[in-house]
Amino acid sequence: MKLAKRILAALLAVAMVAVLFAGCTNGTEGTETKTLTMATNAEFPPYEYFENEKIVGIDAEIAQAICDKLGYELVIEHIDFDSIIPGIQGGKYDFGMAGLTVTEERLANVNFTQSYATGIQAIIVAEGSDIKTADDLFNGGITIGVQKGTTGDLYSTWDIEDEGLGTVERFNKGADAVMALTSGKVDCVVIDNEPAKVFVEKNAGLALLDTAYAEEEYAIAVGKDNEDLLKELDTALSELIADGTVQKIIDKYIPAE
Known about the structure:
Blueprint: H1 2-23, E1 35-40, E2 43-44, E3 48-51, E4 54-56, H2 58-70, E5 73-78, H3 84-89, E6 95-96, H4 104-107, E7 110-112, E8 117-126, E9 142-147, H5 151-161, E10 166-171, H6 174-182, E11 188-192, H7 193-202, E12 206-208, E13 214-218, E14 221-223, H8 227-242, H9 245-253
Helix pairs in contact: 2-8, 2-9
């Protein structure tokens, strides 16, 4: 009887170990799953947006190509834009891609890889608006709509609001800022050029100014205490830029005009 109990106990122990082992593999015997979690805000087409409940876009595809090269499984988390940097700092996410521009303020909190794309901060106005160029934003009395925490927010705050030249209204989504413009609550919206094109196309009565507000470089954000991951991502990104993969992904979403 005691022997039977010992055998049963041994079998249960083996079974538990097998379950635990299976939980840390990717289906290939003896191989651990390595996962990287990317923080993004999927309200920024064509860089990241939802399609059939899946996050797709330029950043999503570049991140997947990097993870494929490095042997990681990619998990993408959709969160508020202004929660991305704090989430990376706190170790909740491994890296962030969301059309993130390298700024001095952000460099104080996270590290960045090399740039993989160039963005333009554009200005959306209502058709017939008195705002004809970017310089008109500095004439005073303008209310600018932005997505909270974006470089459009940062630049217009520094250049306009902090200088007493106008007011910046901040929204959780770029689409909310555009809705405020269509209803006359703001005079213009400062946002990245690519989503700006989409918003203008989908909302009658809006126009995109020919002059840009600013130009910027997008890069991948990584925690300051994660130098090894930063080197991994930067090396893989370099190779994907060199072999044309990154440009091919960008061209897929932003065809040459």
